[in-house]
Design a protein that fits this description.
Length: 70
């Protein structure tokens, strides 16, 4: 389910998401940390490649979007 939502977000908003970057590092269980400054499209790709972290990635993407002021 989370993977499907990530795919839909990416499909519909890819150009806008590519301009936004993460504000904080995101630590993932048994995966490399996603560092601050990573484009949201790259963050979504992590969740699409590994469904076990898709819910965490979805939460992080939504959190990043909440922080946007523009």
């Amino acid at each position: 389910m989370a993977g499907q939502l990530l795919q839909r977000l990416l499909t519909v908003n890819e150009s806008a998401l590519g301009e936004l970057v993460t504000e904080d590092d995101l630590e993932l269980d048994r995966k490399p940390t996603v560092t601050a400054g990573t484009p949201l499209t790259d963050l979504i790709d992590v969740g699409l490649r590994d469904q076990s972290v898709a819910p965490t990635i979805l939460g992080a993407v939504l959190s990043e979007l909440e922080q946007q002021t523009e």
